[in-house]
Design a protein that fits this description.
This protein is an alpha+beta fold. The chain has nine helices and 17 strands. The chain is elongated and about 75 Å long.
């Protein structure tokens, strides 16, 4: 835990403190930010206050009095309900507004970890509660230089497997061999394993109408055969198989033929134009040191696709934060599923992945962007046209 940095951030945010709470490992973010894991599951509630100034404060149950001993600060004990409330009042003394893992109206569920009753309890002490969403970004979503390099290396390996997967489809079709979505799913997973990559699930391999199911994953039984004349979507995510590595996440589309029909290429152009509009929005803000919020990036892609007449077919957010989990805890590029008002901050990464999903097929184009102080880059190859697989 970087106590000095957290206190400096609290002062910047004009907050009196950051109050952490847990019971039965409900809040994994608390443990990651605080940098500790108890030896046993906490069966009683604990509270940990990092004030903007002064000494941290620990409030723990007498039965589990050592629960927070790995952390610095004064210790307060409680046992009964009334002494818990008294303990909260004591550690919060002098605080008017504190951050908690809370999101008004649950707009950002990734950080909405504290239950409503506990929010009510803390407010009953006379303290106002702010969301910790931006603080979580600062201490959870920012990458180290080593993590950025792990992402770039994962990208090189994933891109190689992606090219090989399209080649494998083409080889099978030229040879007259039957090949299914499941076969390519297994081909990619085997390629990841050989390349020293890890993924917790996936990838998506989809043809025709399956391409319009955004979370489709083929199964051994019932997956579609890939045939000449089919459009194909590959959505692949993986990271280096080592501690601290972060994900690389892309989506590419291809066509099983020598020339892409206009009905597919037209939608690809709509989607890729929306993608590029979002990329430029991020890069312009970074170059000019302008504040940028997640919802604004979504607006850039969505307005482009809507202007082409396909807005109603773009049914998910433009992008998500990326970290040690493929869906990380930084700002999402979202003004559809939520109005994400978190700032896009340096040393964070996220996807840009607009899509248009029709009844017969869907097209998505996904890249990853890394933002640093004064610059923003796409971390891998950008697909400019659909892959011709034959």
């Amino acid at each position: 835990m970087k106590l000095d940095d957290i206190q400096a951030a609290l002062r910047d945010e004009k907050l009196d403190g950051w109050l952490f709470f847990d019971h039965h490992f409900r809040d994994p973010l608390a443990y990651r930010v605080l940098g500790f894991k108890p030896e046993a599951t906490p069966s009683r509630r604990w509270y940990y206050l990092i004030p903007a100034h002064g000494e941290a404060q620990r409030l723990v149950h007498r039965i589990e009095s050592g629960m927070l001993d790995a952390l610095p600060g004064a210790k307060h004990l409680y046992s009964g309900w009334s002494t818990q409330v008294d303990g909260l009042k004591a550690i919060l003394q002098g605080c008017r507004k504190v951050a908690m893992q809370y999101s008004p109206l649950c707009a950002i569920p990734y950080v909405s970890m504290v239950d409503g009753g506990t929010i009510e309890l803390v407010r009953s002490t006379g303290v106002d509660i702010a969301t910790s969403a931006d603080l979580i970004q600062l201490f959870e979503a920012r990458w180290s230089a080593e993590q950025l390099e792990s992402h770039l290396e994962a990208g090189r390996r994933v891109d190689s497997v992606r090219a090989a997967a399209f080649q494998r489809i083409g080889d099978a079709l030229r040879a007259g061999e039957s090949i299914t979505e499941w076969d390519i799913n297994r081909f990619i997973r085997y390629g990841f394993e050989k390349s020293g990559l890890f993924t917790d699930h996936g990838p998506i391999v989809a043809v025709n109408e399956h391409m319009s199911d955004q979370h489709y994953e083929p199964r051994e039984q019932g997956s579609a055969v890939i045939r000449k004349g089919d459009p194909v979507l590959l959505d692949m995510w993986a990271k280096l198989d080592r501690p601290g590595a972060v994900y690389y996440d892309i989506t590419w589309t291809g066509f099983c033929g020598a020339e892409v029909p206009e009905k597919y290429s037209r939608i690809f152009e709509v989607v890729s134009s929306g993608r590029d509009r979002a990329i430029e929005k991020v890069q312009s803000a970074a170059r000019n040191h302008e504040l940028l919020y997640g919802y604004q990036v979504d607006d850039a892609a969505r307005s482009s696709i809507a202007a082409s007449g396909y807005g109603e077919y773009f049914v998910h957010r433009t992008g998500h934060s990326i970290g040690e989990e493929v869906h990380g805890n930084g700002a999402n590029m979202d003004n559809l599923e939520s109005h994400d008002e978190r700032r896009v901050i340096p040393r964070t990464c996220f996807s840009i992945e607009p899509g248009v999903y029709l009844l017969e097929f869907g097209i998505r184009s996904e890249v990853d962007m890394y933002v640093d102080d004064g610059s923003a880059i796409v971390t891998g190859e950008i697909q400019r046209e659909m892959v011709t697989i034959l």
